[in-house]
Amino acid sequence: MAHNAAELIETPLLDGDLLRQTAIREIRAQIVTLPSVRAHRLSNTEFSHREFVLVRVRLANGIEGIGEAAVLGGPRWAEESVESIQAAVTRYLAPALLDCPAARPAEAALRMAKAAFRNNAAKGAVETAIYDALAQTLDVPLTLLFGGALRDRVPVLWALASGDAEQEVEEARAKLAAREHRDFKIKLGFASPEDDLRRLRRLRDEVPEMRRLIVDVNQAWSEADCRRFLPALQELRVDLIEQPLPGDDFEGMARVAAQSPIPLMVDEAAFTHREITRAGTMGCGSVYSLKLVKSGGLRALTQAARVAESSGMELYGGCLLEGSIGAAAHLAVFATLPRLPQGCEHFGPRLHVSEIVKDPLVIEDFHLCVPQGPGLGVHLDEDRLRDALRPS
Ligand code: MUC
Ligand code: MG
C-alpha cells in the first residue's frame, strides 16, 4: 500500500526516544573549492580546481552528519552546479526535512522526492549526512545500516586525464611505484580518436606494468567511430569501454555492444532504476557504473546495484571525483555489495592538493580502505574547511 509522508509521520512510534533525539533541526550547504594536483580533462569539460557542496545536518541530540555533493566543471557532466545544489538544499530540501527523524531515512527520502524533482547530487549529499548522523547516534559504522561490511578494502584505479602523454607516463609510473594503483582509466574524447589512440599506445608501450586499462569516452564518439576504432582498442588490450556514445542513444550502444569484443560500461545513460533496467535488458553494456550523483541517495544506490545486476550488468564502483567525504559514502555501500567484480575508481581524495577532513581515506597496496568507526568514519577539519570555503 502506498503511504504519503503525512501518514508515515502519524504511524505509532516504536522508539519515541530515538525518533525525538534524531529529529532534524538544521541543514546547511557550503560551497568548497579545492585546487587539483593537475588539470583533469573530460570530453566535455576541463578543470584545475574542484568545487563541491558540503552538506551538514544537525539533529536534536546535537550530533552533526556530513555529506558531499559533487559536480564536474559546473553543470557539464550532469545538470547540477554547486550554485543549484546549494539553492536546492537550502530553499527546498531543508524546509521539507525539518523535524523528520534521521532514524527514518526512508521517510527523509520520500520527503525529498516530494520537495524536488531529480537534483540527485543535492539529495545524495543530504541523505549521506542524515545517515552519518544516524549511524553516529547509534555508535555504529554506516556500513551496518546497509547490511554490514563484506570487505574492508576495495581495489581502486587511477585516471590519467591531462591529455599530455609524457606527463601521463610519469604519473602512471609514480602510482605503480607507490603501490597505490596498477589499474588505470584513460579519459578519451577531448582529442581526435587518432590522437587518443596515439596517447594510449604510448602508455601501453612505455608503462608495460599497467594492468587493467579502461577507457572513458564520456559520450564523445559516434557509432561509426566505435566501429572504426574498436579493433585498435582491442589490440591495445583495453579491458572496458565506458559510455562511448551519447547517454540517450540506447539503441546505438546496444548495437556497438553486440559487435564489441570488449565489454561496454554504462555511465551517463542510466540514472534512474528504469533507465538501468532499460540499458541492461537492451544490452547497452555488460557493466554499470554506480554513482551517488546518479542514484540520489545511498539507499537508492544499493537498490541500483540490485537492479543493474538483475538486468544483466556487473557492478563497477564509479565516482564523480569526490573527496574523502563522498568517497566514504560510496564505500559504505560498496563494502556491503555481495559482488563488486570491477572494483572502484575513488581516487578523488588524491586528486586534490588538500582535503577538508582530519582523516583522509587511505590507499595502500592498490586498494582503498573502508574507514572504520561510527558513521562515515571521516571528520571535518574546521580550519582546513574555513580556508577552502568559497567566499560568499
Ligand atoms: C566519469 O564520467 O566517469 C569519474 C572519473 C573521472 O575521471 O571522471 C569521472 C566521471
Ligand atoms: Mg564515466
TrEMBL record:
Pfam name, any one: MR_MLE_N
Keywords: Aromatic hydrocarbons catabolism, Isomerase, Manganese, Metal-binding
Family: Belongs to the mandelate racemase/muconate lactonizing enzyme family.
Pathway recorded for this protein: Aromatic compound metabolism
GO BP of this protein: amino acid catabolic process; peptide metabolic process
The organism's place on the tree of life at top rank: Bacteria
NCBIfam families attached to this UniProt entry: mucon_cyclo
Mandelate racemase/muconate lactonizing enzyme C-terminal domain residues: 165-263
Species in which this protein is naturally found: Ponticoccus litoralis
Gene3D superfamilies, A to Z: Enolase-like C-terminal domain, Enolase-like, N-terminal domain
Database matches in PROSITE patterns: MR_MLE_2
Protein name as catalogued: Muconate/chloromuconate family cycloisomerase
Cofactor(s) this protein cannot do without: Mn(2+)
A GO MF term: racemase and epimerase activity
